[in-house]
Structures are given as C-alpha cells and as structure tokens.
C-alpha cells in the first residue's frame, strides 16, 4: 500500500518550481558517508488485502476475552464496553486530531477533556484532575514525584500490596530522580500499619497505597491516611479498578491528597496492556504542582463559553527543565472513551455495574471455596478480586483451563514469594453464572 | 454548547446492564467503606450520542483537512490499521494471559522491534514507553545506568536551544543538570559552543536530527566525535524521522540512543493528544539496560525475558501502548522498504515546494534546503501589528489547521510548517494561496487577522482569565 498522493508529473512540476532536477538534490546536505546505499532490509510491501490476511493470522494466534471466558484481572479488567463508546471515539474528528493547541479548532476535544476532568473528580472525590497520563503505573510515579515537589522531602514509601509492576515503575522513576524508594510489608492481605507507622518519618514525602489493593482487598485507608498525615507526608491513593468507586467511598472522602490511577476499566479494552488511561487528581492546593495538561473553561470575545488548555506554565513546552513533568502526549482518546462510558452508565448504571461486579465475585468465590482443596487466603472485605489457595500449582490449573477456553486467574507466586499456591481471581459484570459454573466444573475435573 | 452534566435529568439511563443472575449475597463491606452518592450525570443513550457527535463536529482532524502542524507529522492515518488493531486477538488479549496464548502479540512486538532497529541502525529496542517524552526519559535512564556501571557520575545533559521542551524536562526528571547549546547562524549546533561545553561530566547530548527548524545537522559526524571524544553518549530525538526513512540512519550518524514517535512517522493517529508510543533503540553496549521484559525468540516460540539483572526496571505496566504498536507495524508492512523511502522523499519535496512558494511573502530565517518541515518568521507582518498567532487563526477561516507557532523558541514569531507526504500538490497550492492572501490581508486589512477566526463555534478565547481564575471542572450549583 502507499499513501503518497502526488503523481510523477506533479512531482516533476514541483521540482521544476523549486529548481531542482531530482529529489536527491534535497538530501545533498547529508554527508555522503551516512547516506544509505541500499534499500532497508524489510519485508516487501503488501496490498490491503494481503495486509489484513497477514495480521488476521497473527492475531489469531492469541487468546482473547471474546473467545475465552476471562477470570483474570490484576490490573487489566475485562469489562463490557457499550457500543456507543467505540462509535463515538471512532469519530475521526477526534482520533485524527493532534493535541488541542489551537483551541478554536479543537473545542470538541477540549470540552470532552473538561468533562473527563469533572467525571474523575466526581468518582475520586478530589478537587482537580488532569487531562490524563500514560497509565496507572506512571500516574502513581508522577504522584510520588509531585508529592516530593510539594513537601520538598526525599523519600517515598509504598505499600507492598500495590500492583508489583506499578511499584517497579515508581521505583524506576523515583530513584532516577534522586529520591529514595522504600516498601512496607503486608499482613492478612493488607498493608501492615504497624510497619508503616514505624517507617514513616518527617523525611517521608508520600505514602502510596492501592485500594482495592493488588490482592483485591480493601485497605484501612483511614489508618494509612492518619499515619501519613501525622508526619505531614502526602497521602496518595492509587485506584487500579475504578469501577469499584461505584460502591466504595472515594479517596477524597478518606482524606487523600492525591488520587492516581488507571482508567482502563472505564470503556477501554485490555489491548494486551495498552493503551490504557492514567489519571491524577488532587486537592486544590496542589494544583500548581500537578503534572500534565489541564483544560479550563473560559469565554470567547463574544462572551460565549469555550475551553482552553491552561496553567501551561507548569508544562515542559513553556517551563522546559523546570516543568512539573516531562509529559507531552497523553492518553486523550482513552480519556474520551472513559468520558463517554461514564456518561452512558451514569449515576444509576455505574452503581449497578459496581454491584454486579461485587456480587459476581462473591458467587465465584463461594463456589470456588466449595471445591476440595481450595481455601480462602485472606478474609478481608474485597471488591471484584480475591486470592485463594489452590491444591495444585495454579499455573498447572491455568494450563488445563485454557483447553476449555477459560483464562484462569493470576498465579500470585509470579510476584510474591510464599504465595506460590495462590491464585488471584477476578469477576466482572461479564462473568455470567453459566461461565462461573463451567469454571467450577472444570476445576473439579482438574483438581478433584 | 451545554456540558453533559447540564443535560442530566433524574432517572435517565444510557446503558443497559444484565440482571443479576447469581444469588444476592451480603457484600461484607463495612458501612464506613461504602459511599452514599455517585454524582455522575443521568442521560439517555441518544443524549450521549448527540452530545459527543456535536462535540466531534467542533474538532478538526487530519480527516477534516490539511493539518500542517510542524513537528507533529500529521500524515494520513490509514483506515486499515484501525481495523487491524481492532481484531479481537489484539484488542481483547489480556496482558497476563499465558505466553503460549499470546504468541501473536509477542510476534508483533518482536518483529516491530527488529524493523525499527533496521530503520534506525540500532541494535536493540524497547517498545514499552507510552510516548516520545517517556521514551526520552527511558533513554536517559539507560545512559545513567551505563555510566553508573562504569563508575562514572556524569551530571550534565546538553540540549540545543532549538530542542523540544520535553528534552530538558526529561533530563531534569532523570536527575540531570541541563546545559543549553546555542544554534549557529545556519540553524545547526554551534560547534564552538559545543566544544566548550561537551566536557567530561556530560552524560549525553540530546539532538533532534533533522532538527526542529527542519534542517539536517550538517556537522553531525563531527558533533558525534566531539561528544564521544569525552566519553559522552549521543541521544537522538527521533521525532523527525519522517524526513530520513530509508535515506539515512541515526545509528550511522553516531547516535547511541534513539527514540521514535510511532504516532508521527509511523502513521498511528494522535487521538487528539494521545495515545502515542515512544520506542527506544540503543546500540549493543546499552542493550543490557533496556526496560524489562524484553521479547525474545527461541526456535519458533516468543517469550518475555524478565531475567535482565541490569535493566533500568520499568517505565510502564505491561508492554507498552500495544495497539499503537500494531498500527505502526501494519504501516511498515504495508509500505515496505521502497514505500518508506518514498515517504521521506515526498515529505521533503512537499516541504521544500511550499517553503519556496512562501519565502517571498514571509521571512525565511534559514535559507537552506529543508527536510520534512520548515520555519518561517512572521517578523515582517509585525510591522502591521499582526502576530504569528493571528496568521494561524486566520488560516482556520480558510479551512486549514494552523501550523505550529512560536516554536522553536529561537525564531521570532515562528511559523513551523510540516506538510507531510500524504498531501497532494493541489492541497499544497491552495494552502500556499491562502498564506499569500493572508500576507496581503496582514498589510491591508490586519483587523481580519486580529479578529480571526470567525468561522468556528467560538471566536478567540480568553486564555488569561482561564489561567487567573482556573475553572477546571463543572460543579453543581
């Protein structure tokens, strides 16, 4: 395929107009020594038909949550996406646009982002939210760095019940920035508050905790927040499964200073891990230290309502090395998907969705625990994920399940030593009773 | 235009959810952990569709028309790529499903890494970074790890004054002190300044080539020698690869690290600001520091290699903005080697054609052959009280998306134009015609420009008040 428009005749006319005899003359400023003397070593071009065939074959080698029943979560959640979401996000005026630098030609995206900022504030109970960050993990890292800029302290403390890959990202960001990163342990499936209380000091810039945590359990946010605030550290709550916020008290209601997290669950597909949707919401007083773009409402010369990117003096294109972050491109289209999704579900729908997730998870859990050899690993309040102990290696179980087109839970031993027999299961509104029952029957066959 | 919140009417629902098909249980969540209220809007499905369709009509994309936004490479985004990225095996593959059931996804990552290495002349790639700026940060983290391993503590990163703002911001985020290098009168790196500043405490020079003026660094080999001579690394901001695909490789210019913007050169749509993708390629001596995991191939089987003790760690959960990777790989496969070279040749021809057509009416500060883009100055129009921004806004009335303005910072009243290869002569001619007309208007009817745009849903917006009294969210009265 080729997407070049001009014909040879037109190219000739253009070259004549410039006064050159060949296109090569336009590259005469490149040293002969570095000009490539051979074609790139790539496969031959394909027609559209061949391209589709080639990629259908490649994609066909993957399992997907449409053909497989999915009980896997752990940071990427298989939720139903209403048709309005892809239809509206697929409007090319949105997806083929660049960053809304020219406000008058970009009012659609700007208003949508303003709505997104509002919706995330409504969900998280925070005052202000940015226009998105790359993903939950980097959003948490940005939150940690923001907290150290606010508090002018050099140490970040993260709970070990935060998603392991998130912790790795935070560690990578924070240490390269020249800050210290420390983790505190867990007990009974939640952050050890006794350990946390010992660790947090007046050097601590931020305490990071995830709710529901990686094991699916609800943290004692009141207590964690109290420990952080006693030492004047910022209290950062990470939300990886935002559909939980239809039921659970918002981070803002627990006194969080920053809520950072992942919005994939809100109308974005799992897409083998990306693009997902990072967000960062904070209390008003920290506005000037926030990373990323912000859209604000204003008026035009006729007094009509309009929207612009604002407070750009925080950003890299204005402040360069003194910017609050280096972020430029964000995840605007994923933010748009979340906006449409939340609007479509609305006040009642979102509550109902959360309840469905929680109820399905409880059915799944009680059925799994009926099986011989399976035990609850934790007895804590949870949302739509939970950990069970298995009679055999959960990796083995997953292998068997795939034969029945089931994606089993996450073998927790992948990330936590001592939990090699543990399995992190997830249910969503997509988990039909018959699918859960099929899983149970299959498990009985495997482990019975 | 109303906000979605202002369309809300109590009791409306815009989505249908399945009935609960399992026995209802007590949730076992203490009352103190539950919320009483979720203040989301209540609208019907039709409300949602009309609202966001109306918003889309207030937005200008590449599909709407010519979008010569310099430095952003707003080329046509092939539709087939959207179809491919939407295949269930890509869109609905879970990042933690077993490797055996993810062979197609891993194949895409592996083969795209291989092809990007060939295109850039690098030895190894990571596709994990989610955008160019995150790629920069990742590249610098690798540089830092490289020096740490050598027992060197280099504190500075050199950045030309023409660089994207992300370069100094990424260096600072990575804990480096930023030292700015001025440009010379020809728009390249000032060699005398470089020699003075490329000392032994410099970790890297971050260079965009072709640079943000659209000019190829003529002294690139000498620049690399100077930086390497003091043990520093050469970092290539590959945001402008579109000009040199199949023509020259950063790896042959002396660069040790390069990041690419797949949402620019490799046709993935920009999504109104993202998602992007910022893969980073390195020379062999830096490969051990790549973020983990790295996709490897063993026989016919692909696997995720986490056993990388010297890796910088991670910058993102999972494996990158995967569906953007799929689109970029599909683009490379569609075009092949000849097609990619043709992209560069046509992008450069288009830019030079428009540049020469406009140099009479606007100041051309660097009169050289340009690459994928060129920068004009609105200096002359200043005499009539007209700014680059006014010219930009007036272009909207003529049906074009404006070029980038006021960047790079070293050109007064900068107007940065990047036509890309997917525009034909007719489109370029009509853009030129509009620009010439605007230059005339600037002289004769400057008010037309100062009051532009007039054809848009809003006229010019009050950015000052927006910043002074930030209104960043809607609140129920």
Would you report the number of β strands of chain A? 17
Oligomer: heterodimer
Query: Can you tell me the overall shape of chain B?
Result: globular
- SS strand fraction of chain A: 5-15%
Binned, the helix content of chain A reads 25-40%
The fourth-level CATH homologous superfamily of the largest domain in chain A is Type I PLP-dependent aspartate aminotransferase-like (Major domain)
User: Under CATH, the topology of the largest domain in chain B is which?
Assistant: Aspartate Aminotransferase, domain 2
What is the element string of chain A, with H for helices and E for strands? HHEHHHEHEHEEEHEHEEEEEHHEEHEEEH
Remind me, CATH topology of the largest domain in chain A?
Aspartate Aminotransferase, domain 2
Q: From the 3D coordinates, which CATH architecture of the largest domain in chain A would you assign?
A: 3-Layer(aba) Sandwich
Order of helices and strands of chain B: HHHHEHEHEHEHEHEEEEHEHHEEHHH
Report the total helices of chain A: 13
Uncertain ranges of chain B: none
Q: Overall pLDDT of chain A, averaged?
A: 97
Trace the largest sheet of chain A across and list its strands: 2-10-9-8-7-3-4
Which segments of chain A are poorly predicted (pLDDT under 50) over 5 or more consecutive residues?
none
Helix content of chain B: 25-40%
Estimated radius of gyration of chain B: 25 Å
Taking all residues together, what is the mean pLDDT of chain B? 97
Distance between the termini of chain B: 18 Å
What does this entry look like structurally?
The complex is a heterodimer of chains A (448) and B (477). Chain A is α/β, with parallel strands linked by helices and 448 residues long. Chain A has helices at residues 8-18, 48-59, 84-89, 92-95, 107-124, 136-151, 164-176, 193-199, 221-230, 316-319, 332-370, 394-402, 433-447, and strands at residues 69-70, 128-129, 155-159, 180-184, 186-187, 190-191, 204-210, 234-239, 258-262, 278-282, 295-299, 305-309, 375-376, 385-389, 406-407, 410-411, 422-426. In chain A, strands 2-10-9-8-7-3-4 form a seven-stranded mixed sheet, with helices on both faces. Chain A has two domains: 69-80 and 346-447, Aspartate Aminotransferase, domain 1, CATH 3.90.1150.10; 84-341, Type I PLP-dependent aspartate aminotransferase-like (Major domain) (Aspartate Aminotransferase, domain 2, 3-Layer(aba) Sandwich). By secondary structure, chain B is an alpha/beta fold. Chain B is built from 15 helices and twelve strands. In chain B, 61% of the residues are buried. In chain B, helix 4 packs parallel to helix 10 and helix 5 (132-149) crosses helix 6 (166-173). In chain B, 36% of the residues lie in helices and 11% in strands. Chain B has helices at 45-56, 79-85, 88-91, 103-120, 132-149, 166-173, 191-197, 220-229, 250-253, 322-358, 379-382, 388-397, 425-444, 446-450, 463-468; strands spanning 124-126, 156-160, 177-181, 202-208, 233-238, 257-260, 280-282, 294-298, 301-305, 374-377, 404-405, 414-417. Chain B starts with 44 loop residues before the first helix and ends in a 9-residue tail after the last helix. In chain B, a hairpin with a 2-residue loop joins strand 8 (294-298) and strand 9. Chain B folds into two domains: 80-334, Aspartate Aminotransferase, domain 2, CATH 3.40.640.10; 345-463, Aspartate Aminotransferase, domain 1 (Alpha-Beta Complex). In chain B, the strands form three sheets. Chain B has a seven-stranded mixed sheet, with helices on both faces. A three-stranded antiparallel sheet of chain B has the order 10-12-11, with helices on one face. In chain B, strands 8-9 form a two-stranded antiparallel ribbon. Chains A and B meet through helix 1, helix 2, helix 3, helix 4 and helix 5 of A and helix 1, helix 2, helix 3, helix 4 and helix 5 of B.
